[in-house]
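Checklist before submission:
- one chain only
- standard amino acids only
- sequence pasted in full

Submission:
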Amino acid sequence: MNDENLDAETIPTVLSDTPTINPTTTQHAKEKYTPNVVRKGNALCLSGGGFRASLFHLGALRRLNELGILSQLDCISSVSGGSIISAHLSEAIRPWPSRGTIFPLWEETVSAPFRRFCSKNLRNPPLIAGYLKPWNWFSKTIIGDTLAEHYEEITKGSLVDLPDSPRFTFCATDMTFGVNWVFEKNSVGDYQAGFVPTPRDWKVARAVAASSCFPPVFKPIPIGLNVEDFKQHGKGLARARKDYDDCIQGIRLTDGGNYDNMGLEPVWKTYAYVLVSDGGATFDFEPDQNALWRLNRYTQILGNQASALRKRWLMSNFDSNILRGTYWGIGSISKNYEEAGSEGYDEQLVTSRIASIRTDIDSFTAAEAKVLENHGYFTVDAAVRHHVKELITVDS
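Returned file contents:
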């Protein structure tokens, strides 16, 4: 640090030269961190966590449908594995059921096709295309393109063709600005880069690929958008930077879980009810091993801290009635809720087996799929009945 000019005469004193707070800066902080006081609507957040999370969410979604809650959703915000099942929903449930009713053909239209999809190994084909074929070694997009091709098995639609309601929001992480990037029907972008109209040829599968390209297995995906589009429409906070053009040209997207694995970022400021389904990785205690283990452990601890802080913030908002809603996770024990007759797996099975199932997108067996689906079904039923029973319109 250069302290050449730091002397007693240039350092402001407490009494005579205390720096004042810039009102513009204060207003920016309020806009960025203060929620909208006029909250309305219901949002569902589907976390990341590979096919484990996808299948856990599948069971939760089935029960939400049976209770008449799914049809009341105004927004579905998803990350990684949550984006996979969300994309499937956006295609399979057409038209969306009217508010307070249920979608009747769940097993044959939603669950069975999705379990079949999760029985396929989606991890290896992009890796083979990107790393084992020399002619692809210098391609910046081959891994993301290959991953997107496989997601087209469950969704062939374009982002602009998504339904108006509910609002489907697919979350990725912008590596340039380090914030949450969203893909939606009408716009794509983030608050630093800015938001631009969604290109008409962008597929939902492309958004899911960006949302689920978890590192270091998959390379980040370049967006390939024009800088001028951001200058015309963007209005991002980083627009005044001298290197803004270079930053936009260099944007690459990685797994949404790197920034917010629960998908809370797009909904926490504005929605009255926030329901969170968390199939993400749990933090297991392990004895010290070696240098390589410690290197990985550092990353795990950082991720666990970020997740824990978001959960604490969410629970404190529920407790203080700033938000209404509920949370259920892969480690939740449905029988621990106070509702009489709550069904579900016992604590030993949940903690030692179900919560330790891998967070990957390789082939999941029929047994793994059904156990995860059942666990999501039982936990959401207990959580909803305990915390937001008023949302139930069909008690089946």
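Reviewer check: The chain has a mean pLDDT of 87.
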